[in-house]
Amino acid sequence: MTRTSALVRDDPQINPNSLHDFHVAKRGPKNVPRTVMSMSTDKKSVPKKPGHPYAQTTNIKFEFFDQRTSNAPFGYEHFVSVPPQYDKDTDKKWPLILFLHGAGESQRGRNESFVSLRHGIPKVILCYNRFKSDPSNPNPSPSISIPPAERFRKTEQIKQGDQSSYPVPAEVCVLLAENFITVSPSLNMDWGYGWNASILTALLDEIVQRYRVDLDRIHVTGFSMGGYGTWELGLHTPHRFATLMPVCGGGDELRVSHIKHIPHWAQHGDRDDIIPLRASQKMVTALERAGAPEVRFTRYPDLMHDSWTAAYNNPEVYRWMLARQRQVKGDEQGVPAENKVVLS
């Protein structure tokens, strides 16, 4: 076997079916520049223009930020929504959902963060904005069709049926947008494949200082690459989260005893030929054997890789999160201040 064939096998840009093997091998960031984003010089996080119109909202605050502090030479740009009542009730602390997108929603150049808005939590927020403009529509869809990045138009994900414009039930829109702060980082794959748990931890440290977050009600969810990132982040700071909901992901089943106290809800399509069903099955089985008190596993018999549209359109997901709090306290600050740098 030549080196060329090995690269093709391992490269998700060429062979989408390699994503599971790519995660198992735990590739790290590559080609990381010393400075990867431009920051303002003051200490306040200031929203910036994302460079595209797709994140514009009128009925809910949905802003785009640079990560200001990190324990690495780079951070994640991120979208943040806050409930419409956030500024009116200044004493209330809110539950938070951290959402991690998949590889197909990653940036590969400037102003490509729009790709991360096409699915999952950001899509629901945009549908909520549409619903508030027209409450008579019980199944809103995004007000504008967000295209995939050109390089992803022919991926397996798109060939299986692009459901980014598929409507979201109004009940789901309201449950999410009016009850949670949401944080949706945007990963640039030019700097490496996969979510970095240390940098996400530093981002969360920043978020809980910036917003009134209920520290006992922080939830993590994501799909595909973000499903792996969900379990990896839970293992990185196991005493920080109220729930973990990985969709078509996988993880290190040998370490699940560290997160067995956290309620889990794994979801996966039985016909997934990109991330195999067994990736979730191994984690669920390991958690059950470790004595985890709450492990849900939803399998979709007829779905392939896109099981996230069904998962995030399910109102029970958000009710489940609202009903749960952190079981074991700790990890209030994931990265010590002396280990962080201000990105400039």
Walkthrough of the structure:
There is one protein chain. The chain is α/β, with parallel strands linked by helices and 344 residues long. Helix 8 (277-289) links the parallel strand 8 (264-269) and strand 9. The chain has one domain (64-328): 3-Layer(aba) Sandwich (Rossmann fold). The chain has helices at 3-10, 19-24, 120-133, 156-159, 170-177, 197-210, 225-236, 277-289, 308-312, 315-322, and strands at 61-65, 69-70, 77-82, 94-100, 181-186, 213-223, 243-247, 264-269, 295-300, 341-342. The strands form 2 sheets. It has an 8-stranded mixed beta sheet with strand order 1-3-5-4-6-7-8-9, with helices on both faces. Strands 2-10 form a two-stranded antiparallel ribbon. The protein is 27% helix and 16% strand. The chain is globular and about 50 Å long. Residues 32-51 are annotated as: Disordered. Residues 200-309 form the Phospholipase/carboxylesterase/thioesterase domain.
Rg, Cα atoms, Å: 19 Å
Helix content: 25-40%
Which outline best applies?
Answer: globular
Strands of the largest sheet, in order across it? 1-3-5-4-6-7-8-9
Distance between the termini: 44 Å
Average pLDDT, rounded to a whole number, is: 86
Strand segment tally: 10
At CATH's second level, what is the architecture? 3-Layer(aba) Sandwich
Count, helices: 10
Listing every helix as H and every strand as E from the N terminus to the C terminus, the arrangement reads HHEEEEHHHEHEHEEHEHHE
Strand content: 15-25%
CATH class: Alpha Beta
Domain unit count: 1
User: What is the CATH topology descriptor?
Assistant: Rossmann fold
SS-derived structural category? alpha/beta
Largest sheet: 8 strands, mixed
